[in-house]
Amino acid sequence: MRKNKTTHLMAGILIIFFVAVFLVLTGRFLYIQATGEVNDVSLEDWADEKRTSAYPLEAERGQIFDKNGMTLAYDRPTFRIYAIVDEAYSSDLEDPDHVTDPEKTAEMLAPKLEMEENEILDRLQSGIEGDQFQVEFGNAGKELSQQERDEIAELDLPGINFEKEAIRYYPNGMFASHIIGFARDSERETDEGETVREITGEVGMEKEMNDLLSGQDGFISYHRDKYNKKLLDPNEVIQKPEDGDDVYLTIDQKIQTLLEDTLSQVEQDYDPERMTAVVMDPKTGEIVAMSNRPSYNPNNPANVENWYNDVISNPFEPGSTVKMFTWAAAIEEGVYNGDEEFESGTYRANEKIAPIHDHNNGEGWGSISYDEGFRRSSNVAAAKLLWEKLGAETYLEYLEAFDMDKETGIDLPGEVPGEILYNWPLEKITTSFGQGSTVTPIQQMKAATAIANDGKMLQPYVIQEVVDSSTGEVIKEKSPNVVGEPISKETSDQVRSLLDSAVNGEDATGAKYKLDDYTVGGKTGTAQMPNPNGGGYANGRENHIFSFLGMAPVDDPQLMMYVSVKQPELEIDESGSDPVAFVFNNVMENSLHYLNIDPDKEEDQSVQNITLPKLIGTNSSQTEEELNDLGLKVTTVGSGEVVAANVQEGDEVLPNDPILLVTDEPTMPNVMGWSLREVLELADLTQLQIETFGNGYVVTQNIEEGTPLKEGDYLGVELAPPNEDSGDNE
Prior knowledge:
Blueprint: H1 2-35, E1 37-38, E2 41-42, H2 43-50, E3 52-57, E4 64-65, E5 71-84, H3 102-113, H4 117-129, E6 134-136, H5 146-153, E7 160-169, H6 177-180, E8 182-189, E9 195-203, H7 204-208, H8 210-214, E10 218-223, E11 237-239, E12 246-249, H9 253-270, E13 274-280, E14 287-293, H10 310-313, H11 323-332, E15 341-343, E16 346-347, E17 356-357, E18 367-369, H12 370-375, H13 379-390, H14 392-401, H15 425-431, H16 441-452, E19 457-458, E20 463-467, E21 474-477, E22 482-484, H17 489-504, E23 521-528, E24 544-552, E25 559-566, H18 577-594, E26 610-611, H19 620-629, E27 633-637, E28 639-645, E29 652-653, E30 658-665, H20 676-686, E31 689-694, E32 697-701, E33 714-720
Parallel strand pairs: 4-12, 27-30, 31-33
Antiparallel strand pairs: 1-2, 3-10, 4-5, 5-6, 5-7, 8-9, 10-11, 12-20, 13-14, 13-25, 15-18, 16-17, 19-22, 20-21, 23-24, 24-25, 26-29, 28-30, 32-33
C-alpha cells in the first residue's frame, strides 16, 4: 500500500509539471502571435531585414575650379575587381556566375593585375575552402581604369565582377597643392553598424569646404532571395544622392602654372631649404597664385616634407620688407621729412640699448636723407624714425592698424599669425626693420594692399564662389572686403613713390627687380635666421631668408607679389636676391602681359642700341664726354690718350652699359661697388696682379683712388653680396 501511494504522488507531480510547461509554452506562442515580437524584437522587421538588401548611392563630390573654370579637382571613376567563389550562386543557372576554374582565372588575371599567378590562385582557393562568397585582390585590384576594366572583362572569366568607385583626382599634379589640399578614401561605420566608404578632405580647400563638397549620399533597398537576387515584387525604395557643390577659386591657372614652373626651376638651380610665393590682385584681395616649396603631389601624398602652407602658417622675422610700413606710419603721422638728413652707419638710442648697425658692417653712407635711407634700406633710418619721430607706442598702434598682430582671415585652414615682440626698447627698435617680431607672408601682403590701394586694406581670399552642381545656381559669392584704412591716399601715394625709388632709383637695393615693360615698386628683405645650435643668429651668407614684396605698375598696381627664398645654395658670384628676382621678374612681367595690362614704359626704351665710335687713340676726356652724351656709363682710368677699352669700335651696347677706358697714364679708379667681372676687366686691361676675397661687389680696395698704376702692381679687393655685408638684417 505504501508503494502505491508513492507512485501516485510522483505521477501527480509529473502531470502538474507537464501541464505547467504546456501552459507556459502555449502562453508564449500566443503572446508571440499576438504581439509579433520576441525579446522586444519585431519579427516582421527582422524578417524584412533578412530579406532586404540596401546599398548606399554615393553622392559625387563637388569639383574645384580655377577662376576661369579650369578643373583643379574632381572625382575620377575607377573600378574594383572581385571574384565570386560560392558555387551556390550559380545554382539553377545555365551559365555559371562563380569562378569555375581557379587555375585558369589566376593565369589570365595575373598579367592584367600585375600580380603573381600563385598569389591570385591562393586567394581564390582560400575563399573556396573557407566557404566565402567572394574574394578581392588587394590594392592591385583597386582603382582600375575604364580601359583596364574593359580588357579584363573581354577575358570573359566566370565569377569576375567589378564595382565602380570614385577616387579624388588632381589633373595638374603638384599645382597649388597647398591651396587645394587633397581628399582621400576613408571608411565610416553608420549608426546601423554598416561600414560605408566616403571621400573626406584632409587638408587645404578640400578640408575647408568638405561639408559643401561632400553632398549627401542616397540609398536603394529591395527584397531579395537567399542568393541575393531581386524578387519579382521587390518593394524597391530609392533615395537619390545629392551631389556636392562646386567651388570656384580666385586662382588663375595660367599664372599659377607660371609660378609653379618658376619655383621648380629655382628649386633645381639653388636647392633652397624653403620657398614661398604669392600673387594678389591688390584692388580686390583675390589671391591669383600661391605656392611653396617643398610641395607635394596630391594624387600621391607620400613622403611629404612639408604639409604646411608656409604663406599663411609659417611666421618668421621678415627683414626689411617691413620698412615700407615703418615709413608709412611716419608719413601718416606727419613726422616724416624725406629731405632731412641723418648720420647713417650706427645708431644707439641710449647707453642702455645696444647699438643698431646698417647692413654694410655699420659703415653706412655718411649723412644721407631719409628718402635715401629707404632706397639704401638703412636700419638706422628705420630705428630713428621709430624712436625719435614716431615713438614706440604710436608705431605699435600702426602695426595693429595694419593687422600685424592677428590672422588675416583668409579662407584657408591652418592660418597662424605672427607675434609682435615688443617688451623691451631694443625689441621695439628692431621691429621697425623687421627683426625680432614675426609675421607671415600673407600678413605682409594684406598690409601692403593699403599702400597699393589708396590706403584701403583688403582681406585676402581664395574662394570666388560656390555653385550648386546640379542647377548651376550661385549659392555663395565673395566680393572685395575692405577691413581697414590704416593710412590715407596721400600717404599711400608717397610710400609707392618711395617703393619706386627703392627699385629704380640711384643706389636702390631693389635694382634687380626692374622689369622691361612695367615700373616696379617694392622693398627687399634679407632676414637673419635663428641659430638652431644656440642663441643669436646663424652665420654665413646663405643662412638668410631673402625676400621681395613688389607691385606693378607702381602708379596703379594691378598685381602685387611676395617671394621668399630660404638658404639657397649660391655660387661665388651670386647673391641671395638672384633666385628671388628670377621668380618675381618672370612671374610678374609675364602675368601682367597675360592679363593685358598696358605697359607703362616706352616700348623702345630697352632696345635702343648704341654703336660705339672709335675709342683707341682718342683723347680720353673728349671721348668720355661724347660717350656720356650717348647715355653710357664711362669710367676713365687716368688721363691722356686712350690705349685700351673693354669694348671695341663698332660694338653695339645698351644705355647704362659700363664702358672702361684705360689711358697711357693710368691711375687707380674708385672700384667700390664694382662687380667681380668689372674689376677683373680692369685688372686685365691695366695688367695688374689681382687677388679677390669674397664674392659679390667690391667693398674694399688696397690701392687708393688716384694712385698711378703700372704693369704688375698688386690689387687686392674684398667683395660682399649687396645688403649682406654684415649679417645684420637688411
